[in-house]
Amino acid sequence: MLPSFLRSSSRSASLTSSRNLRRNALLLIAAAVFPAILHAEDKAQDKLSLDTTRSEVHFTLADTLHTVHGTFHIQQGDITFDPATGKADGSIVVDALSGKSGNSIRDHRMTNDELKAPDFKTVAFVPTRFTGTFNPTGDSTLQVHGLFTLLGTPHEIDVPMQIQVDGDRIHAVGSFPVPYVQWGLKDPSTFMIKVNKEVQVELDLSGTLRH
Question: Taking the model in full, what pTM does it have?
């Protein structure tokens, strides 16, 4: 019979070996399972890449005399989203220097005095989540929540969007009010002409959808 101190040492070694085997087995399982989970999450992400030649931002602003309509050019737009969870990421970036309303004097004032575009060259919308059911083909109605950055300051907004998918092509339209004076832009009103304190912004987006 082994002395007691040898038996104790043998049991300790056996327990240590058993623990090491269990730990190694767990590590092997984790190494096999985690990449598969991450790959599945990656596959769940859809990606929208905007065609900037076919996408625009429109705006409408009324004053006491008439209503001004104009457009801005989209610089770039890439959005990833998970139809199952409603999570979204990416951005739509607008060139703040590109605003056109059909009047060069008014456009110069809008670009330099109100938008301060020489200092803040872009306006951006960063979606963070959406509600509603996204259909991989046909029409969908979504409510998109995100951050709209103007003069370098982000503001939370919700944008109702109408989506149409045809194959790998996608078209999305949506509109939302921007209380630009409240958000720090100069009020263009004069003594004679009073301008609405909200501008209506409309997104007209076309691009490619990848699942």
Answer: 0.78
